[in-house]
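Researcher: Sequence of Membrane transporter follows. Predict its structure.
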Amino acid sequence: MLFGGIKMTWVYLIVAGIFEVVWATSMKLSNGFVNIFWDMITLLGMFLSFYFLVIATKHLPISIAYPVWTGIGAAGSIAAGVFLFRDQISGITWLFIVLLLVGIVGIKITSGH
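Model: Prediction complete. Tokens:
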């Protein structure tokens, strides 16, 4: 199965990472689980994130899938924090974010999957 030249397994993994960002962001917006709307979005995001990760790990080794999933979640959560919550990130931190993204791409390129 290919989707624009990318195996669907990788699409599922990327979707899982995006839903990780969704649940992390909505958890912040839930204000400590006191806002029922954001609480439900958080739980739905968690479920979908894990669901797509499970699908991806049917065909990808966990040693590849898990670091990519957490890397997408980490980088996406940083972006959400900066753009939605006005988090301040230092220049050196941005350097490490870029290195994180390079690592994710490197894992994909070298994984052979």
